[in-house]
Amino acid sequence: MVFRTLVCAAAVVGLVIECAYGSVSVVLSYFTIWTNILVAVVLGLSAARAWRRLPGSPGSSSTWSSPTRRAPSTWSRTSTG
Questions:
Q1: Average pLDDT over residues 60-66
Q2: What one-character DSSP code corresponds to residue 55?
């Protein structure tokens, strides 16, 4: 949770600094600025969910994301051609 909060804060501070020293319309025209906004939003929401101890999203079940569950099927496909 602390890491997510720090990364979110760093992204927000970077955006504020860029907007303070440059024209907002020019700053918002860069792809890297939009990715920083996306990082700030996603990690901010993630940190908020962790702070409130809410469960993960429905698609983030540990059963499906385990690499050991996918290994046999991947191995059989690659070994048989």
A1: 50
A2: -
Backbone angles phi, psi at 74, to 5 degrees: -65, -40
Q: Do 60 and 39 form a contact (C-beta atoms < 8 A)?
A: no
Give pLDDT, residue 52.
Answer: 83
CA atoms of 43 and 39, how far apart (whole Å): 6
Burial of 11 (0-12, 13-18, 19+ CB in 10 A): buried
**Residue 8 DSSP class:** H
Which tokens belong to 51?
A: 């702070």
Q: Which helix (H) or strand (E) holds 47?
A: helix 31-51
How far, in Å, CA of 5 to CA of 49, rounded? 11
Count the residues in the chain.
Answer: 81
